[in-house]
Amino acid sequence: MKGGIEMTNNKLFLTGFLILLFSCLTGFSQSHEMELQMGNKANLQEKNDNQKQEELTYVKVVHFTVKQDRKEEFFEWMKQNQDDFARSLPPGWKFLGCYYTVFHTGKHGCQFRYEIEGMSAYDTLVLFESEKLDKYWEIIYGFIDRQIPMEMEILKEIKSDNKTVEN
Fold first, then answer.
1. What would you report as the CA-atom Rg of the chain, rounded to the nearest whole angstrom?
2. Domain extent listing, the chain
C-alpha cells in the first residue's frame, strides 16, 4: 500500500507543480485555474484546441542527476524502454530523448528533452490519465538523486523571418 500512496503523492505533487508553473508562465486567469482544479475537461479541451492554433512549439528540457550507484542500470533501462515511454506521453508531447552529459560545469548529468505544442500542453498533461505513464514516472523517479534538485527550462526557437536560407 505504501507504494500506491507514494505514487499518489508524487502525482499530486507533479500536478500541483505543473499548475503553479503554468500559472507563472502564462498568467492563468482565475477562471481557467478554477476549471483546472475542478476538472472541467470539456471547457479546458475547447480552450486548448483554440490556443494550439495560435501557439508555437517549445522544447522542454528537464535536468536531473541519476543516483551514482544506479547510472548503468538507468542507461540500460532507458535504452530498453524509451520508445515505449515516448508512446505513453499525452497528445502535444513528443519525447526527443534522454541525454547524458559528457562534459559540463554544472551539477546535472542527464536531461530529458521534449517538444511540446505550446503551453497548453501542460493542461493536457495534467488531465491525461495513464497507468502506464504513471508507472514509467515511478521507475524514472526511483533512479533520480533527489538530494540534487531537478531543474527545468522551456525553450522557444528564435526563427528568422526568411522562409529559406541560401548559402
1. 17
2. 2-155
User: Which CATH number fits the domain 2-155, given the four candidates 3.30.70.100, 3.10.450.50, 3.40.250.10, 3.40.50.2300?
Assistant: 3.30.70.100
- Residues 6 or more apart whose Cβ sits within 8 Å of residue 133: 85, 88, 89, 90
User: How far apart (Å, rounded) are the C-alpha atoms in residues 96 and 51?
Assistant: 23
Contact status, residue 126 vs residue 18, Cβ threshold 8 Å: yes
Angle at 73 between CA 70 and CA 78, to 5 degrees: 120
Residues recorded for the chain: 167
Query: pLDDT by residue (tens digit) across 5-20?
Result: 554 555 555 554 454 4
Could you tell me the three cell numbers for 110? 542527464
